[in-house]
Specification:
The protein has 4 helices and 12 strands; from the N terminus they run E-H-E-H-E-H-E-H-E-E-E-E-E-E-E-E. The protein has 275 residues and is of the alpha+beta class. It has a single domain, classed as Jelly Rolls (Sandwich). The longest helix is centred in the N-terminal third of the chain and has 20 residues.
Length: 275
């Protein structure tokens, strides 16, 4: 029986509406640039465990699922252990979950905490997508090419999807849980590009606020749970993207322990259904 509230109300930062029709892209690469380019919206964030209990979470439609998974990794600060053991565990998990033909790991991962050394290792504090729908397919194809297996997966015969596998480490999430937008409520016209760098050409994306969007979180996630959500998907009959960020949970205890989490990313490969 679910012991958590059906929903909570909190504030989430979204890119300012002024950027909707601008030709140039905003840049967010620091606390100062984040504050200058985003505004907080009060929203209702629904308890995803209720949907999970009735089997209503699906990567293809709403864009995220919750799975139980016991890991053999004992130290997520041990890079060798993460890149070896944990990546192998997560590859097996995503293949089993999606039924994909193959899966490629990204060459990086992040262990997030409240006060990290680098800005992008902190909890995200604005709603975002990790990649741009306009450029990610070139990146997907470069992953295959760089692996030396480009001839196996020509883009005219294969589809690609990016996923993030997100897990708490060190203990139950008491504060700053992840919030996701149900992918089926995300409108493509509301996704704009931005640059997560001060100088240079890096590109990701942000959703503009839309009152038709629906928001979800998993209360008090445990270290044996993994939240898997879609980054982008080239299959035209599937949902495109599941934007996400962290938020302040008003039901958290006053002395809540700071959250730590790890996220790793995989690209799955699917045979294209030819008409």
């Amino acid at each position: 029986m679910n012991e958590y509230p059906d929903y909570v109300k909190s504030q989430i930062a979204f890119i300012n509406d002024e950027w909707r029709d601008r030709v140039e892209s905003p840049r967010i690469y620091s606390r100062e640039s984040r504050r200058a380019n985003t505004s907080r919206r009060e929203v209702t964030i629904h308890n995803a465990r209720l949907r999970d209990e009735v089997g209503d979470l699906d990567l293809d439609e709403c864009g995220f699922v919750l799975v139980n998974h016991e890991t053999g990794v004992t130290d997520f600060r041990d890079k060798e252990m993460v890149l070896g053991d944990y990546f192998a565990e997560m590859r097996a998990l995503i293949l089993e979950l999606t039924g994909a033909h193959d899966a490629f790991s990204f060459p990086f991962y992040q262990v997030r905490s409240k006060e990290p050394e680098h800005f992008f290792d902190a909890y995200s504090l604005y709603m975002h997508c990790d990649f741009s729908p306009d450029t990610w397919l070139k990146f997907a194809q470069s992953i295959v090419k760089d692996s030396g297996r480009g001839k196996e997966y020509p883009p005219e015969e294969w589809d690609f999807a990016f996923y993030n596998l997100w897990r708490p480490v060190g203990g139950t999430v008491q504060q700053n849980p992840l919030v996701l937008i149900d992918a089926s409520t995300v409108e493509r016209d509301d996704i704009i590009n931005y640059q997560p760098v001060k100088n240079g050409r890096g590109q990701a994306a942000l959703p503009l606020f839309n009152d038709r969007q629906r928001y979800y979180y998993v209360p008090r996630m445990q270290t044996d749970e993994v939240l898997i959500f879609k980054q982008l998907d080239s299959r035209t009959d599937k949902s495109l993207v599941c934007p996400h960020t962290s938020f302040v949970d008003p039901t958290a205890p006053a002395d809540a322990v700071a959250r730590e989490s790890i996220d790793v990313r995989f690209m799955c490969v699917y045979p294209r259904v030819l008409s």
